Amino acid sequence: MKQDLIAILDLGSTENTVLARQIRDLGVYSEIHPHDIAAEELKALGNLKGIILNGGKNRVVDGKEVEVGAAVYELGCPVISIDYPQSKCETRFDELPGQEALKKFLFEDCQAEANWNMKNFITDQIELIRQQVGDKKVLLALSGGVDSSVVAAMLIKAIGQQLVCVHVNHGLMRKNESESVVKVFRDQLHANLIYVDASERFLGKLENVADPEQKRKIIGGEFIRVFEEEARKLAGIDFLGQGTIYPDIIESGTKTAKMVKSHHNVGGLPEDLKFELVEPLKQLFKDEVRACGVELGLPHDMVYRQPFPGPGLGVRCLGAITRDRLEAVRESDAILREEFARVGLDKKVWQYFTVVPDFKSVGMKNNARVFEYMVIIRAINTVDAMTASVEKVDWDVLERITGRILAEVENVNRVCYDMSPKPPATIEFE
Ligand code: XMP
To answer: In percent, how much of the chain has pLDDT > 70?
Structure first.
């Protein structure tokens, strides 16, 4: 079964994703493509029911006025333009269409069916994965993040034991995170899961390394090496599963969207390890990935977790990582998450975490002078992580968290709240 499709051609609008979401929210599948896509390519996409030319008043890409190829108008489906007065189309939307105008275009003009939903999507993907993979094996780096977890759940459903998951614990995970990956995937979903505890190896490589970029490089590079070692031990793997999602594709795939960052979970594997990619989420936006995870039966906490950087707590234990400070970051982070969940802030705040700098301050404990570390709490809201504002956390909540951190976390005598927006600060400290 293939869903009906509405293609949005990007002629310079910055609102392509908003429109794609609007259409999907009405139950019709939509994809964004560059303005110069060939008509045959559009046709090959499947059940193409309509085309929207999205460019605004001027239709400018890279400083040049653009138009689509003449053959696009002859594909036999309705073509509508947004806002461009000189458009060759008969009809146009004067601006991003409202619900009613869009409904009319989709269901009357294009005769599209509202058959885009998670159940159908999963059924389709399972079929496609089985066709692609046959009786071969797929390897997946399972970090426990939303995307890799949802890919794993989907692949388990599609090919069961032909999927080999590798979970590398780099020692910089949050409290109980690796345990929860093993519990959910090995014990509950019966995945073929290889768990590699590489904590000592990572911490050894990071000893005395204070430069943030150097730390990130070591963690990323070592991750690839551990994963590669595991891959080499396993004979007969032809495919690599990846949690690529739709924004990753459109950020690099359309003409106007700027490349924000390269997203390759396990990019950098050596050339001689040749895998074909299996990317079953590459058509989904982030919230759709979460909905897909829920539909596949993953626990709510795993699907709705906040973003967590690849280098993990390594970039929150500032400067050269030491075990005592790493433990202080891990324990204080767990307390913060527990307390935010208790008052519902976990559902409101976009990202929140603790940081432990690499210097000490003087304090008093049990009537004696102490010289210990501080914990900094950060809680921010953002839409796209490019800018961020600070959450105005209730004073009582902060007091309670502070009390718990000072009572329960070793080697800490001070708690601070970070008031800095992004910019000039970044969300993470390193
Ligand atoms: P910054 O610190 O640049 O962070 O304001 C923006 C967002 O990106 C997350 N982040 C990362 N995510 N790998 C990731 O997958 C990374 O190396 C990484 N570094 C930062 C950060 O947590 C925030 O949400």
So the answer is: 96
